[in-house]
Amino acid sequence: EFSIGLIVGPSGSGKTTLLSRFGQTRVINWKETAAIVSQFRGAEDAQQRLTAVGLNTVPSWMRPYHVLSTGEKFRADLARRLETGAIIDEFTGTVDRTVACSCAHAVQRYIRKNHLRRVMFATCHYDVVPWLQPDWAFDTSTGRIARRGSVQRPSIKLEIVPCGTKAWAAFSNHHYLSEAINPAARCWLAHWGDNLVGFTAALAFPNGNFKNGWREHRTVILPDYQGLGIGVRLSDAIA
């Protein structure tokens, strides 16, 4: 018994053949004219699954499958496949590598939170291994099995730089409350390597009890990078 198993190795090394011994990848059928969010077992199930695979943008939920980008299609299919005994080949093969690591982390959290069992992945990308944290991983290039805990999840190093309010345009659609921003706000961007991941802003907060007060105004982490704990750390850093 295990929660997550992984077969990893270069292309042509037999990953798919070995994966087939655990079962077959379920073919996902989508209704052409229906929003993807309507094709789950209910609203709560859809929200949990789509969030778990990093497809957190509500406008994307409302679109039919055929108009999604390649990366969005991968995540939508993955959301439908997450169940006990799932077989998932070519994991994260079609998405940006930083997004892939974020997705792997979110997926393993969903699997363990919902007590799914015997979920099998195969991939040629070694970078997702410490983020997926499989109970065991078989490397087809070496013939060795690594157990969970043998590889630690890397730390996330953010670079925070000041910016103007115009940068808010790239994040406004993802804010849960409002697309507006106060023109007097002081703003910052957060980068993870070459990837833009977050935005935060603060406003002066005059108060009779203390001087030079500030309050948080807007904080948004882009959907691909949510669930990694970046938001609270960004807020703490600016504070």
Question: Any overview of this molecule?
Answer:
By secondary structure, the protein is an alpha/beta fold. The protein has seven helices and nine strands. The protein has helices at 15-19, 43-52, 58-61, 70-81, 97-113, 129-132, 230-238, and strands at residues 4-8, 87-88, 119-123, 136-139, 144-147, 158-163, 186-192, 195-204, 214-221. The protein has a five-stranded mixed β-sheet. α2 packs across α4 and α2 (43-52) packs across α5 (97-113). The protein starts with a strand and ends with a helix. The mean pLDDT is 91.
Itemize the secondary structure elements and their pairings.
Blueprint: E1 4-8, H1 15-19, H2 43-52, H3 58-61, H4 70-81, E2 87-88, H5 97-113, E3 119-123, H6 129-132, E4 136-139, E5 144-147, E6 158-163, E7 186-192, E8 195-204, E9 214-221, H7 230-238
Parallel strand pairs: 1-3, 1-4, 2-3
Antiparallel strand pairs: 4-5, 6-7, 7-8, 8-9
Rg to the nearest angstrom? 20 Å
> Can you count the helices?
7
Mean pLDDT: 91
Structural class based on helices, strands and sheet pairing: alpha/beta
Numbering strands along the chain, what is their spatial order in the largest sheet? 2-3-1-4-5
The proportion of residues in beta strands is 15-25%
Q: How many strands?
A: 9
Q: What pattern of helices and strands is seen along the backbone? A: EHHHHEHEHEEEEEEH
Oligomer: single chain
| Proportion of helical residues | 25-40%
Q: How widely separated are the two ends?
A: 45 Å
Sequence stretches where pLDDT stays below 50 over 5 or more residues = none
